[in-house]
Design a protein that fits this description.
Layout: H1 2-8, E1 28-30, E2 41-46, E3 52-56, E4 59-63, E5 68-71, E6 86-91, E7 97-101, E8 104-109, E9 114-118, E10 135-138, E11 144-147, E12 151-156, E13 161-166, H2 174-177, E14 181-184, E15 190-194, E16 197-201, E17 208-211, E18 226-231, E19 236-241, E20 245-249, E21 254-258, E22 273-278, E23 284-288, E24 291-295, E25 302-305, E26 320-325, E27 331-335, E28 340-343, E29 368-373, E30 379-383, E31 388-391
Antiparallel strand pairs: 1-28, 2-3, 3-4, 4-5, 6-7, 7-8, 8-9, 10-11, 11-12, 12-13, 14-15, 15-16, 16-17, 18-19, 19-20, 20-21, 22-23, 23-24, 24-25, 26-27, 27-28, 29-30, 30-31
Length: 398
């Protein structure tokens, strides 16, 4: 019943047919005023039970549709979150929840409401090689891969140990050497992004290749800082860099790119790309330092959604850090310093009816067994232990 109730909190309505027809998208906002622990959002995940998880610069936040539960590091509690900067989150196919922080890898126990921590152990080559966990990925075979500073690791759930592969050249700059994202191509190769380039790893042969710019091939990717990798439903690989958005075609093994053109309003509005996510209609949401640009399904034109101080229902910040699509198609946009923006699927939310202790006209029990409408248009709600309820649709009272 808990799972059903949580999904009911997430609206399921029909979104606008094209963003070009409606650029005045209406966003809801979740900030520190709503209980969010910090306004810088680094990661977003919806788990199999419907909860939304937000990794911030100051704690991990679980959102149930009404309120936040915040998890933070407690030096006196060894089962608390290992670090407050939460960079990445993943639920594996066994429904285990994993969170990467600057101070280790965390496995969440839902029943105990506690974490198992994995960290680097000096002298132990089977431990996590670096405590700063930047990215998590589960491949098509169910292997859990962890991207850290300079290393790619594979976790063995039987031995609770790691097999580690040195990937990124260590420059001494932890931000540059960190593996910021991991994806898998159709051949089973793992692609990894870092601020020093793109790396490809073959799990079968253990071979590592680096993608570099070829001056003889204008459509090859530039040797630039790479923020993020994303593979869409058409098996196109999207590469977010500091100076362009690149698309890699696995069939032709060639790159095309998108950049801002001041003379073209339907071009990308900013070149410093931080996030890419496909919505339920196949449009591509591109986050950058001027809001969001939404690329149509034909991959030709962008609809640009910048921050506008005079639009209170628009984006509340220009610096977009991450974008996430939930199970019913709602789009969640995490910003650098203004919390979360939500575009509900259809632009509206469900109205919720719950039992209220001090209200005789509220629902008598939150466990709903049956709902039916009679020939007079009245709505009857059968509950578990609370009897039968008749809803007044105009007043919202029972």
């Amino acid at each position: 019943m808990r799972k059903l109730a949580l999904y009911l909190l997430m609206p399921f309505l029909v979104m606008q047919t094209t963003f070009a027809q409606n650029q005045n998208l209406s966003f809801q906002h979740l900030t520190t005023d709503n209980g969010l622990s910090h306004s810088l959002i680094r990661s977003i995940l919806q788990d199999s039970r419907g909860f939304l998880w937000f990794g911030t610069n100051e704690g991990l936040n679980k959102y149930d549709g009404y309120k936040f539960t915040v998890y933070k590091h407690d030096p006196a509690n060894p089962t608390s979150l290992s670090g407050n900067e939460v960079w990445t989150a993943l639920e594996d196919r066994q429904h285990n929840l994993w969170f990467g922080t600057v101070a280790g890898l965390n496995l969440f126990d839902r029943e105990k409401d506690a974490f198992t921590i994995y960290k680097n152990e000096v002298g132990n080559p089977k431990s996590l090689p670096s405590n700063w966990v930047r990215s998590l990925y589960e491949d098509s075979k169910g292997n859990l891969w962890i991207g850290t500073v300079g290393w790619l690791s594979c976790f063995d759930p039987k031995t609770k140990s790691f097999t580690n592969y040195p990937i990124v050249r260590v420059t001494g700059d932890r931000l540059s050497d960190g593996i910021s994202s991991i994806i898998e191509d159709r051949n089973g190769n793992l692609w990894m992004s870092a601020l020093v380039g793109i790396y490809m790893f073959n799990p079968a042969t253990k071979a590592i290749h680096t993608l570099r710019h070829d001056e003889k091939k204008p459509t090859s990717t530039s040797d630039t800082r790479v923020n993020h990798l994303y593979r869409d439903s058409h098996n196109q690989i999207w590469i977010s860099t500091w100076d362009a958005l690149y698309r890699y075609d696995e069939n032709s093994r060639s790159f095309s790119f998108y950049v801002h053109d001041p003379a073209d309003k339907s071009s990308l509005s900013n070149n410093n790309i931080s996030a890419v996510t496909e919505d339920h209609q196949g449009n591509l949401w591109v986050g950058h330092r001027n809001g969001v640009s939404i690329l149509d399904r034909d991959r030709k034109k962008f609809t640009n959604i910048p921050y506008d101080l005079n639009k209170p229902t628009g984006l509340n910040n220009n610096f977009v850090n991450c974008i996430y699509k939930d199970v019913v198609g709602n789009m969640w946009v995490g910003t650098w310093n203004s919390g979360i923006n939500i575009l509900y699927n259809g632009g509206k939310k469900f109205r919720h009816y719950l039992h209220e202790l001090n209200s005789e006209k509220s629902l008598t029990n939150n466990i709903v067994k049956a709902v039916a409408e009679d020939n007079q248009g009245r709505l009857w709600v059968g509950t578990d232990g609370g009897g039968l309820n008749l809803l007044d649709k105009q007043s919202g009272e029972f």
